[in-house]
Amino acid sequence: MKRSSLFVVAAVLVFSLSACGGGNTAQPPANQPSTETPSTTAPSGSYDAATAEALFKNTCAGCHGQTLEGAVGPNLQKVGGQLSKDQILEILNNGKGAMPPGLVKGADAETLAAWLADKK
């Protein structure tokens, strides 16, 4: 009985951590027009909201839900009311709890942190 319980816990952990990974964003072929919306700026800085949303959906939604509602990871719908852009960026870079570090890096992390900081 204990062995099967351990297996279930391990399987859930593996699934939840693998759902947070990714980062592969599909690019349209060079001969096809992009379907992205024009850049949008917001209060926490200049960033492209469409790019930030795509980064979230491709990298974070597996744990945080398609609409930031939370799933395996916490609800992020109002994360900007609790954390600043710099605090969010620190979590993206260093991880927190079950979230591994570095799922989104560099300029992508900056864009995602600014977008999340505007969620209030």
TrEMBL record:
Keyword Thylakoid in annotation: no
Biased composition (Low complexity): 33-46
UniProt-annotated stretches for the region Disordered: 20-46
SUPFAM superfamilies: Cytochrome c
Keyword Acetylation: no
PROSITE patterns recorded: CYTC, PROKAR_LIPOPROTEIN
Domain Cytochrome c: 47-120
CC annotations in GO: membrane
Positions with a binding annotation for heme c: 60, 63-64, 99
PTM entry text: Binds 1 heme c group covalently per subunit.
Record-linked Gene3D superfamilies: Cytochrome c-like domain
Signal peptide range: 1-21
Transmembrane residue ranges: none
Stored Pfam families: Cytochrome_CBB3
GO molecular function: electron transfer activity; heme binding; iron ion binding
Protein name: Cytochrome c551
Lineage: Bacteria, Bacillati, Bacillota, Bacilli, Bacillales
